[in-house]
Amino acid sequence: MSLMGMDVGTTGCKAVAFDADGNALAKAYREYQFLNPEPGFYELDPEVVWSHFTDCVREVNA
């Protein structure tokens, strides 16, 4: 049995797979840029975040 943890943050996302004893088996990280459409406004492109998220899952599962 293994478990996968995901962290989707402001500047990137990461995935780590662990075995039943808590040892890391595989990990992946993808960084993305936030958008600044005008002063004081910060956004993430949800399509980019989702793409990077799925890339991390695929890499860890491989």
Describe this structure in words.
With 62 residues, this protein is of the alpha+beta class. It has one domain (2-61). It contains one helix and three strands, in the order E-E-E-H. The chain has one helix spanning 46-61, and strands at residues 2-8, 12-19, 24-31. It has a three-stranded antiparallel β-sheet with strand order 1-2-3, covered by helices on one side. It is elongated and about 45 Å long.
Please describe the topology of this protein.
Elements: E1 2-8, E2 12-19, E3 24-31, H1 46-61
Antiparallel strand pairs: 1-2, 2-3
Task: Describe the sheet with the most strands.
Answer: 3 strands, antiparallel
- Outline, from the CA principal axes? elongated
User: Main sheet: which strands, in order across?
Assistant: 1-2-3
Q: Look at the structure and give the mean pLDDT.
A: 95
Strand element count: 3
- What structural class should be given to the helix and strand makeup? alpha+beta
Poorly predicted regions: none
Q: List the domain count as a whole number.
A: 1
Report the oligomer: single chain
The ordered string of helix (H) and strand (E) elements is EEEH
Rg on CA atoms, Å: 14 Å
- Calculate the terminal CA-CA distance, rounded to whole Å: 15 Å
Helix content: 25-40%
Number of helices: 1
Q: How much strand content do the residues show?
A: 35-45%
